[in-house]
Every structure is written in structure tokens, then in C-alpha cells.
Amino acid sequence: MTRQIEEAVTFLEERGFGVPEIGIILGTGLGKILEYVDVEAEMSYNHIPNFPTATVEFHTGKLIYGELGGKKVILMQGRFHIYEGYSLQDVTFPVRVMHRLGIKRLLVSNASGAINLNFNKGEIMLIDDHINLQGSSPLAFRGVEKLGERFVDMSAPYDKEMNQLIEEIAINYDIKLHKGVYASVVGPQLETRAEYRYLKIIGADAVGMSTVPEVIVANHLGIPVSALSVLTDECDPDHLEPVEIVDILAMAAKAEPDMITLFTELIRSL
């Protein structure tokens, strides 16, 4: 994997990707933050050596380098999921590449379903902790110790300093911000009523199909990370209604301006 990382990094450096301070992973329907980025270089995933290719129709599949909030950033416009047939090592490969390029912090966004019935769709949850229900770990491969500590401590996977700043920004901008536990499942199917009840019992406030692998690898690499989850549907097992992807995208679009404010102002304050 070290050789594959170096090949990707060399390719990007030769094509105008400089040294970013902050990496950003954009989730489903959350791409408009790019309108605020002074873009200096961009590259489709399928042109970058050893990169997976985004197969989900609403994930664009570009790596973008530029300036946002006075900082050099590198953004993933579209991410990878194990439900696309990729391994967890594939899913998290871009995090290792961004780290090798120079990022010192990682910001992650996603779209998720609200398990906590005090949360409403169209609102945002700051992830305070997570539950990995994806069946494996992105660190479960031979030679992982060459890239970082094998037995990574996960007692506080999300950076307290950045999370506190995000909460303060939310107050200053009058943004309704929840805080809770994110459960990551395989997908791509949505959950049954029984599964939603199970998730509530084990302490999840929201459920999605991403983020946790990238956060585990960020911790493996010693990168402070914060993550925002846009709540796109309400998962009440006693009053469950079918959900269409168009509805999920619409709710993500509704909450996106607030997410952009939270991330942009956080970057400005770091």
C-alpha cells in the first residue's frame, strides 16, 4: 500500500496539488461548498493511480485542491462505500493519500437517517461518537503497522477542540445543531423497522453507510477529525414511510447552507 500511496501522491503533486492543511470529505448531496473554494487544481478519481472510482450516480468523483477560509484545502467531491463492492482499505485509501500530501486535520460530512426522534430531517448532527456495524475494520490487513499503530485508541475519535468550535459557531449563527452517536452500516438497502429499533437500543442517534472507516484511519494516522451528519429522514419504526433518494437529496440540500457555514467558519478559526 505504501507504494500505491506514493504513486498517487507523486501524480497529484506533478499536476498542481500543493500542500493542504485540511482535508474535507463531502457526503451525499453536499457539494455546494465548492462554490466557496478558490480552486487551483482538480482531478477525476479515475485518472489518479490506484484510486477507486465513484460508482454512485450522485457522487461526482473528483479530488479538488484550493483555498477556503484562508487555508489550503483538499476536498473529496464524492466518496467510496463498501456497498459499491470496495474493501475498507479501498474506501479509506484517499485519506492516506491526503495525509501523505500534508493534511493536519480532516472534516467529514454525510447524509444520515435520524434514529433519535427528537431530531428532525433537514437538521444537522455533530458526531460525538460512533458505532461500527460494517463488519470489519480498515486496519485489518497485513502490514498495517508500517503505516501507524495497529491497536488504535478510539476512546475519543472526534476532536474535542474542533467539535467545541463547531458548537460555538452554531450558536453564533443561530444554527440548530444536535450532538450524538452515528452508527455506520453496510447498506445500500435502508433499514427495517426492527433494525431501527435495534439501533435505538444500542445507543445510535443517526444511521448511515459511511464516515466511520475514514475516521478510524484518520485516528490511525494521528489526524484530528470532526464530522457533521445531515439528517435526511426520520426513522420512526412505528410510523415508517418509504424513503426515495430524491427526498434524501432534497433534505441534504435544505441543510447544506448551514453545513457550509459551520465548516467554513471552523476552517477560518483554526
Automatic annotation (TrEMBL):
The keyword Glycosyltransferase applies. Gene3D superfamilies: Nucleoside phosphorylase domain (3.40.50.1580). Its EC number is 2.4.2.1. The keyword rRNA processing does not apply. Residues 21-268 form the Nucleoside phosphorylase domain. CDD domains: PNP-EcPNPII_like (cd09009). Belongs to the PNP/MTAP phosphorylase family. The purine nucleoside phosphorylases catalyze the phosphorolytic breakdown of the N-glycosidic bond in the beta-(deoxy)ribonucleoside molecules, with the formation of the corresponding free purine bases and pentose-1-phosphate. This is Purine nucleoside phosphorylase. It comes from Pukyongia salina.
